[in-house]
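Team,

Forwarding the record for the chain on the shared tracking sheet. I've put the sequence and predicted structure together so nobody has to dig through attachments.
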Amino acid sequence: MKKRKKIVLAYSGGLDTSIILKWLQENYDAEVIAYTADVGQEMDRNKIIKNAKKLGVKRIIIQDLKNIFVKDYVYPMIRGHALYEGVYLLGTSIARPLIAKDQIRVAKKFNAYAVSHGSTGKGNDQVRFELGYHYFGPKIKIIAPWRIWKLKSRTDLINYAKKHGIPIPKDKKGAPPFSVDDNLFHTSTEGKVLENPKNSAPEFIFQRTTSPEKAPNKPSFISINYKNGDPIGLNGKKLSPAKVLDKLNQLAGKNGIGRVDLVENRFIGIKSRGVYETPGGTLLLVAHRAIESVTLDKDTMHKKDEVMPRYAELVYNGYWYSKERFKLQKIVDLKKNKVNGSVKLKLYKGNVTIQSRQTSSNAYSMKKVSFEENKTFNKSNVERFINFHKKKLR
């Protein structure tokens, strides 16, 4: 008896990927393996398994990648201070390369001939997934339903779901849901009323941040401890990378920190509007810049700032595994071994304020910067310094 071919689907258990799972079964003579990467998103494992089994799936894989996600993807990106178009902390972008990598691992393990994803034909994620697939499994076929099926809209999907008995979730107002992506680093919300940029984001869409107006009237304080450029704990207590981010998310979220409303330029050439919540990530970015300010020299810091826009664009566009991103990461990490110490932050009604920076580094000299007279800085050299730079004006 001939063995059936296998397809590994990146499966969330939600509406879109449940429809895709059924569609793959209808259109391909292959066994569909449901693969879910746990990168810290809000998910119900039992529901994922139940929904997949209801659709006839025999092999369901849920892989815990939370620590790998934070340690090997989020932390390197934070070291690069990556912000796309000045504000976006790249929460969706940074998760896709890891999911793609592990999905290909599963495909190879079960000798699958193809992988599939639920990214739409207008979005960036199709690029991010497929560049990752190509890097780790160039000979494995890619099936992108949104680019080839006849279902052209959200309405078509809902009708298809009704036809096949696939549950349709509702949002808090009882309507079909917004398009939401989340992981341990962020939550993004798109679609519906948000598509028109003149509309304000309704408060009920926010999932992990309290509105600043309703945040506590007393500030919260947190110290982030660093070793070799990365957080190793909070308030002097060592924690795993996933635990650090989880605790920062909770603390920042309740203080109304981490909201961004952005109209962005997608890689494929269209503009889109989304609302992003990155509470813990916002604290990590602020604190990392603060600890570097007292541990790194000016040239190193400025070089990092110089490459950051390109680094962020590469991550946004799905080039995490590119030679160029690897090269820029080396620049970013050149002196990360010097970045040690702690930063204390004050959190209050949507604001983050640096309270203190502590380090054993001698990059910052109190003697040189002091307004008191001292012999560690020769002020007579300043005139020569200015005269040298005057010549560069012409």
